[in-house]
Every structure is written in C-alpha cells, then in structure tokens.
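Entries read sequence, tokenised fold; example below:

***
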Amino acid sequence: MKYFTNCNTAEDLKKEYRRLAKQLHPDLGGDTEEFKVMQNEYEIMWERLKNIHTNSEGETYTKETTETPQEFINIINVLTSLSDIEVEICGTWLWVSGNTKAHKEVLKELKFRYAHKKQAWYYHTEPYRKKSKRELTLDEIRDMFGSEKYNQSENKTPTLHS
C-alpha cells in the first residue's frame, strides 16, 4: 500500500482521504491514474477499518457502520468542485460552512442537513441520538472530537488547518 499506511481508525482514514483527494484530484492538477490508485486503496482500507473508531478521549472502540466507501468518495469529489466553502471533519461528521447558500441544492442532494444555530451544513451516516438536552456549539464539538478544516477558495487551491 502506498497511501493510508498510518491510518488506524475510520476517522483517520477519512481525514487522510480528504487530504489526498485535494492533492491528487485531476481537477486540482493531480494525476488521474494516481487518484484512481488512491481511491482503490481507500476502498480496501475502508473494509478493514470501517468499524474501528476513536472517542473524544482518544480511545479506540468498535461500532458497526452501514456506510460504503463509495458514499464518502462521492461526497468528497463533489465538495472539491465547490468554491468558497470550508469543509471540516469532526469525528465521523462532515461540516460545511462558508458561502454555502450558492450550493444549497447540491448539499441537500448529498444528504447534508442544515444546522441553523451553527450556521453550517452537516453530514453523518448513522442515526444520531443525543444523550443530553444540552445544545453543543461547533467549538465544543471541535474540542470533544477534534477537527480538521479544509478551505476551498475561489481559485480552488485548498489549504489545510488543524
């Protein structure tokens, strides 16, 4: 394997895929064949790691998922084509903020939902049940689950923030 060698959980794998997609995607100046090789490796690794997750304390646990690697690949491929947005991975959730109004219908098609109080769109594959009545801010979510942000400006040059 050339890519994803340091990934131990599904969250690690998704973060690394997002980073590599920005680097290798043909629409962003990458090589088509290398991108296909990377996608193939992602699918193989997804089957190994899809049920292994990390909690907010950094402890690893197992939980079955119904998500397929193709779902995440499709979402990332579409998001890389959108301008003036910020994509953030917090745990197993994807959050999209920035100039999202222009991309509202695309985000809905990708099954993102809008969180009005957070002024951001989110994507999560599993049904989520809150354990408390308390409403968390995005900053509190970032503190609990960690965060990787990706800005996509008008010229489609991605930047990574940890």
User: Anything to note?
Assistant: The chain has one domain: 10-161. Residues 10-161 form one domain. The longest strand covers residues 85-90. Confidence is low (pLDDT under 50) at residues 154-162.
